[in-house]
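Weekly modeling sync, notes
Attendees: AB, CL, MP (scribe)

Item 1: holo prediction request
CL wants a bound-state model with 2,5-dihydroxybenzoic acid before deciding which constructs to order. AB pointed out that an apo prediction alone won't tell us much about the pocket. Agreed to run with the ligand included and paste results into these notes for async review.

Input as submitted:
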Amino acid sequence: MNELGRLEDLPADYRAALTEKNLVPLWPSLRAVLPPGKPAIRTQATCWSYQGLRPLLMRAGELTPIEKAERRVLVLANPGHGLEKMQASSTIYLGMQLLQPGEWAPSHRHTPNAVRMIVEGEGAYTTVEGEKCPMSRGDLILTPTGMWHEHGHDGNDPVVWLDVLDLPIVYYCEASYVTEGKAQPVTAEGVDGDYQRGGVVPAPMFTRSGKTFPMLRYPWADVRRTLESIAARQPAIGAVQVAYVNPENGHDCQRILGYSALMLRPGECLQMPARSTAMVFHQIEGGAEVSAAGADFTLDTADTCCIPGYTPITLTNRSADQPAFLFIADDAPLQKKLGVYEVRN
Ligand code: GTQ
């Protein structure tokens, strides 16, 4: 590949004249934006231990009342992007949110899409467009773009969940904003919803759901049972994994980020090919080793890590006799829409 001319090769007066007219020569920067073979990646393999962050989150609960926080969250920030950017990867935001008994995080809606993966505690709920979704460990609750949501807590112990948002990419699009609202009347309970059994959807004679986001809560008990049943019925399957999808059409449940749950069978070691998407792994149950990009992370229950794209990943169940369950987030839906998604074998 040719050595390209440098900025310093150009006369100072010429550079000044370009700057003055808001012009930039491409060739000194061409390889920076189009590096050969593989992108320049800022995202660093990073791990956040739950036991490490939990005391700091609880302290935030003492230091900052919910009224002063609106959302009491410690952001899992990737140092490769600069902590102040509040990014786990180029497109993914991660935060651990704490709600104490009796607290209420007021209703708002925003353009970025969010999901919550419940980490600890019982008795809290998120109301999404009037649907009151109870939160239990491992449940996934969607708060898609533009939908009103608020969080409340009627239980006795702290509740913590992992927020995953496409905030970085929506912010980069200069399309991120919030609208504040007032408490929503509850119009539905997000339990035993219309889509609780796979293979059947509500199909009244004259109308079908035209909802873009028909299913808002994916209870962990159902997801776990499905994974266990796949593992039992298909011992030869390459990976015991299920995707969180829109039950009306089978598409990804959100349009920018994709979500799945993976079961590592006892003793299983899973080799994943390099893919163009960065990936987030959150340990729902059990423990796993995550090896990629020269990093080796030991995940305990409730730990979270992020691995950059274009890297093969090895996941190992740390137990020889218990399954391990991981929640996975990536930006494959976005990359597929953009036509830049790749798997490198
Ligand atoms: O719970 O609505 O972590 O609006 C960041 C922004 C959570 C939320 C976050 C939010 C929320």
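Recorded for review: The pocket of 2,5-dihydroxybenzoic acid is lined by residues 71, 73, 95, 97, 110, 114, 149, 163, 165 (CB under 6 Å).
Action items: CL to compare against the apo run; MP to circulate these notes.
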